[in-house]
Specification:
Elements (H helix, E strand, L loop, with lengths): L4 H9 L11 H31 L4 H26 L1 H12 L8 H40 L18 H48 L6 H23 L1 H24 L18 H8 L7 H15 L5 E2 L3 E2 L2 H22 L1
Antiparallel strand pairs: 1-2
Helix pairs in contact: 1-6, 2-3, 2-6, 3-6, 3-8, 5-6, 6-7, 6-9, 8-11
């Protein structure tokens, strides 16, 4: 039984996740070399754009054109770095979900798991299709316009002269490969975090099902208490390990939205990026599910344990950014307002 299979497939293809099953030293060395090449390509592409802004750009239009690509690449590079340093923690999160007491046992529990996992798999595939369409449009446009004019797809500062045919094609290919890999890795990192949040909701529903079907004190009830503890532990670990990612995403989204508005104000022919935001909360339903079970027939110790679970469930699971900013609709609206203010500033600078 595997979870988030498609997400980890994307990470593996683009060099950021070596499968645990690859125990052969030969495979590990080859994948390490491949992973190093992919990551170096992404970071050098990002640095070439950053240096172009610092050393060459001298007007608002060029600045907007470059930042429009630089910000998503900065975001992707930061996500990859956080993902790589948290590899052991991610494996631990998967093990918690796949081991007792969180591991589904009954047929109904397995159906609940597949329902939630399929939902995130479907959304990941849809997100990937959107990213593929965007990448294909950029590729076709670049091949039909930039390549004929011997121009790079994106502005960049390079420490060498790429006017020769060989160096030009190497640099041109490097930009397109980095753009493609960065787009898919960004999708994989986003759906990984989203997938863990969905599986926390899945565990809550499985716990609710188990509680509704308890008739007397047994090992099942002890597992329910342990599972409820693990749900909060999962939420805490996801919040701690990915807090920096969500903070960077929140800040960068402000710039991305701002420069998308600025680009669209210049021309209606470009629509490059589509953002997806998923907000979810379902923990309080657990209290109602406890009331629906046959709790009157249980002994005093079990009732006390149920009260503890209900008391803990009153405190909602909240994912935060930068320790204080909750990831909810109000925060998203704040990002939009700030983006619009920055957009107005850019418009005034352009005039």
């Amino acid at each position: 039984m595997h979870i988030l299979e498609f997400t980890f497939t994307l990470l593996t293809i683009f060099g950021c996740w070596r499968p645990e099953s690859w125990t052969s030293l030969y495979k590990q060395i080859l994948y390490y070399i491949y992973s190093s090449i992919m990551i170096i390509s992404l970071y050098t592409f990002m640095l070439s754009q950053l240096m172009d802004i610092i050393l060459i750009v001298d007007n608002a239009d060029d600045f907007s054109d470059n930042v429009f690509t630089l910000v998503p690449m900065l975001l992707t590079c930061s996500k990859i770095f956080i993902l790589l340093i948290n590899r052991k923690s991610i494996i631990m999160l998967i093990n918690i979900l796949m081991q007792k007491p969180c591991r589904p046992v009954a047929k109904k529990e397995i159906e609940i798991l597949y329902k939630f996992d399929n939902s995130i798999q479907i959304n990941t595939r849809r997100f990937t299709v959107l990213g593929s369409i965007t990448s294909l449009c950029i590729l076709l446009t670049s091949l039909s316009i930039n390549l004929k004019q011997r121009k790079l797809t994106y502005r960049a500062w390079l420490p060498f002269d790429y006017s020769s045919t060989t160096l030009f094609f190497l640099t041109y290919s490097h930009q397109l490969i980095s753009l493609l890999a960065g787009g898919y890795l960004n999708i994989a990192c986003d759906t990984l975090i989203c997938g863990f949040l969905v599986h926390i909701c899945c565990q809550i529903e499985i716990l609710s099902y188990r509680l509704r079907n308890i008739k007397f004190y047994s090992d099942i009830f002890r597992d329910c208490i342990r599972q409820h503890y693990h749900i909060f532990r999962l939420a805490f670990l996801v919040n701690v390990k990915f807090r920096l990612t969500m903070t960077i995403q929140l800040v960068m989204s402000m710039f991305i939205v701002c420069f998308i508005l600025y680009q669209l104000s210049k021309t209606t022919a470009k629509a490059k990026y589509i953002e997806m935001i998923l907000l979810m909360s379902c923990i309080r339903q657990l209290i109602d599910d406890i009331f629906e079970m046959e709790w009157l027939t249980l002994d005093k110790n079990v009732k006390k344990s149920l009260i503890i679970i209900m008391k803990r469930a009153i405190i909602p699971i909240q994912i935060t950014s930068a320790y204080v900013i909750p990831m909810n609709l109000d925060s998203f609206m704040g990002v939009l307002k700030t983006s619009y203010s920055t957009y107005n500033l850019l418009q005034q600078m352009r005039k």
